Amino acid sequence: MADPHAEKHPNESAETAVERNHGGTKRRHPKNKTLPLFNHNGHRVTTGIHPDGESGRRGIHPIEFLQICFRSSAPWSKYVNFLWPFVPAAIAIHFAAPDEHLWIFILNYIAMVPAANLIGFGGEELARKLPKVFGVLIETTLGSVVEIVLFMVLITREETVNFDPIQIIQAAILGSILANLLLCMGMCFFIGGLKREEQTFHKAISETGNGLILVAGMALVMPSAFIASLRNSPDYSNQDFTDESLRISRATAIILLLAYVVYVWYQMRSHHGLYDEVLESDEHRDADRHHDLAKPKLTLTECIVALAIALTCVSLIAVFLVQEIHYVVHELHVKDAFVGLILVPVVEKAAEHLTAIDEAYDNQMNFALAHVLGACVQTALLNTPLVVFVGWGLGKDMSLDFETFHAVIIILAILVVGNFLRDQKSDYLEGFLCVVVYIIIAICSFYYPDPKKGEAESATTGEAAAAEAAHRLMRF
């Protein structure tokens, strides 16, 4: 039977046609490897582009660009795109009705989800065109852009009596790790386990990621433990350790950034072959791989355009959102801990969570864990040092002196998740338990008092009690 593709390429030989239909290997790679001339869809592969990400087009095609972006990478991601009308509405209301603080906060909070989702999708499309490990690293880094923008906008805000941006950043750092470890990973285990008795993943992904998170978590809370132990000591309880806290935090940030460089080198250079093998094996376990390969892809130019649009929208929305946090904390009496630990991380990680959950649903648990644990590692080893350095440059007291409540729950969460990852297996029960723990933390943080407010109230109460005692003494 004649090859149907032969009619489309009348001048090529039968041997070339067969090679084309099976991913022909006529172009030589500099490292003695062969690269296909055509991919699975019959598209000629561009030099430097991975066959799975070849779109078969060049430049920008507006209609196809909008159609592909709307379809997104998963059904639930596609439904998120229906929220795009909130983006112009959120930007417009900031200028048209600047006194409507609650509506500005609500609209920008919702608008952050589709904008962040476009960053996730643009990063995923770009990652398809790159080598597997490098692509996952780039995709995870782009997913952290929203977090970095929010941190940088918050660190530039001035502190007031009822609003401390540094406390919110500190809570958001740990809240981001918690959202990934408990909420996102829990949803991955739960959604992926609904169709299967259990799912398995490679120890190279789970053990390396979990070990890094444990070390990073210990490093993050060590300054808090140091300061807390001295404050509780009778010999040092009256001393101020702000300067020591800053020095320890900045030194820790330098070490964490160095650890991130070593982590990237480990993934990209010394052990990239192991990660390539694990992730490629995971691709073949994809339940709907044939559908993903057949989907239309964005061109490299369209990926850059999508990311530029998304980053612009995210930056504007982040600025407007942060400006209204003061109103939420002061007027609505929402605690700093709840804003930083729950509200900010949930919206900033929405797109990344959807991607990881889709991969778990398709039985790609190694990819899902690579995204979840990779995002945690980036928050702890990259984003946290960056905000400490920026605060250092701006003269802000951005330290890693976390609240004891926050430090305790992050260590407990890391231990819980580490116990679930130890056997390289997961099921829906483990996922449900992770989500339950996250909900309990959210409830506790909703009622956790702001430290400065608590101190002010205690001082006021103490002064009132002293005045009442003096008044009674005078009556005698």
Textual characterization of the structure:
The protein is an all-alpha fold and 476 residues long. The chain has one domain. It contains 19 helices and 4 strands. The chain has helices at 14-21, 62-71, 75-80, 86-96, 101-128, 132-143, 145-155, 165-194, 203-231, 242-270, 272-284, 289-294, 300-330, 336-348, 350-361, 365-394, 404-421, 428-447, 451-475, and strands spanning 27-28, 34-35, 199-200, 425-426. It has a two-stranded antiparallel sheet with strand order 1-2. Strand 1 (27-28) and strand 2 (34-35) form a beta hairpin. Helix 6 (132-143) packs across helix 16 (365-394) and helix 8 runs antiparallel to helix 18. The protein is globular and about 75 Å long. The termini are far apart. The relative contact order is 0.16. Residues 1-32 and 453-476 have low confidence and may be disordered.
